Amino acid sequence: MDDLPFQKITISGPTLSALMHRIATSLGDVDGLLFGHVTRLTPSTLTDDNTPQNPDSDLVATITSFFCPNIPLSFYDSLGRVDSVTLHRLVSSTTHQSNSSSSSSNFLGWFSARRKSPIRPSMREFCVSQSLSRLKTAAKGDKDLNPCVFLLFTTPVHGEMLYHTHEYRAYQFQVNSRCFEPKTIAIDNIGPDFRGNYGCFSPNSPFPELKCASAMNDEAGEDLNRMEKVSKDQKELDLVAEGFCVGDLGKLMGSETVNSTMSLEGLYEKMLGKLDNLARQVEKSNAKVLEMENHNRKLRYKIARPVPE
């Protein structure tokens, strides 16, 4: 059987996020199955282009869903030999649920997630992919196509895991040459080509209604109520752009708008600083939560451990 090379492998942003979340929340190394479909790109060769085209190179594998049992060696043994009965049961149940809820989904391959290890396929992963190619559980409509897609996820070998960082690569297992061929992985819904999908976006956190004219009034007879109003407006503005003076908002409206570039950049800089501060607080809280989870896990292990008589 001839290998049908993929031009690239695509996966939607939500699917990749869900997969990485499942990997990050697992207690250790995990693996699972990948589902999707294979399509052929429409050739766009011009009439005056004499470049020969290979129709087999126009195939694109699209990953739409996955199945992760949250345990390693879920459908194969430690030597990489696939359990055909377990694999058939997992594939049948997953494809049945997918086909009943949405468009048809076919078995494309599998993924492996390891921690603190080099991002290259291991011998066991090679044996698993080779075993899958021999099972000939082909996708519907593609009788010459084996489940040859392989995604590899790893975490950095060095460094503290204060926040989750994952590296990933995509491969296609070539049956004839018996090797992994690296493939480009494209993420849908990310990039300028997909900006049209977010045309209906509208922010739900507008600026509070501020009377800037009262804040710009420097008359000596400014009463106490007006000063309290300015102070209240300043506190509301500090919630989104800490350190930006409420009086400078008047420069962003009216006749002074022409020369308001510096003020507008200053406003954005303060807002980004506020977001950066919040991000650092979230990172610190995540580290504390991870530390508490590890502590609780040790306590549960200590309680569950049998007491010697």
Automatic annotation (TrEMBL):
It comes from the Eukaryota. It holds the Pfam family MPN_2A_DUB_like. Keywords: Coiled coil. Residues 268-295 form a coiled coil. GO terms for cellular component: nucleus. The keyword Coiled coil applies. The keyword Coiled coil applies. GO terms for molecular function: polyubiquitin modification-dependent protein binding. This is MPN domain-containing protein. It comes from Salix viminalis (Common osier).
